[in-house]
Amino acid sequence: MTDLPEGVERRTFDGQRRLATRGEPVYGEPTDEGWRLWDAGRSKLAAMVESGLDVGLDGGETVLYLGAASGTTASHVADFVGPTYAVEFAPRPVRDLVGVAEGRRNLVPLLKDARKPASYAHVVEADVDAIVQDVATRGQARVAVENRRFLRDDGRLLAAIKARSEDVTRDPEDVFEDALDDLRESYEVLATERLEPYHDDHLGVVARPK
Question: What is the CATH number of the domain that holds 75?
Fold first, then answer.
């Protein structure tokens, strides 16, 4: 079993050992003595961990989170890493994200488009340790390539590729292969894993800059 980052544990919820982070609850998730359930069915990054991928996080890292939405996963990430820059382009989820950040000083919400990294380059510090990407748009690999500028040379890209966001008519495996080919422009792909049963037609990808 993959080692868990410092600040992430397995706790018992409803009789099952599940991932958990220590922090204030955000969205009504079950808690246990200060630990909150990190549900792999609601979080692509948690699904990557549950699927056995080594996400390369030890705790305390600086993270750029692309596609933060209302902050469900970003809040868990901020529980165990350091500065967390959370990019989301839709105003409504960002309002929720701002509320989540009120209880987490290391979480920085950014109402920006992950496809336009120049628009937040003046805020995000250089040489982040990891990019966590969960964006529902065409050209997901291109988003990762464009945001490579922020990642330190020995950092990690942790991406969930959504086949249906690219093309609902094609076989997901073909979509994944094309996305991986595009990623290899700027990254060395270290490991991949399908994220079923947690998320249908998703591929978890761990990569590092070339």
Answer: 3.40.50.150
Residues 158-184, mean pLDDT to the nearest whole number: 97
> Could you tell me which residues are beta bridge partners of residue 156?
130
Q: Phi, psi at residue 72, to the nearest 5°?
A: -55, -60
pLDDT given for residue 141 in this prediction: 98
In a domain, 107, yes or no: yes
Type of residue at 151:
L
pLDDT surpasses 60 at 106: yes
Number of domains comprising the chain: 1
Tokens representing 108?
């920085």
The pLDDT value recorded for residue 142 is 97
Take residue 193 and report the two structure tokens written for it: 């894993």
Task: Give me the phi and psi of 22, to 5 degrees please.
Answer: -95, 120
- Residue 110: give the domain boundaries: 40-209
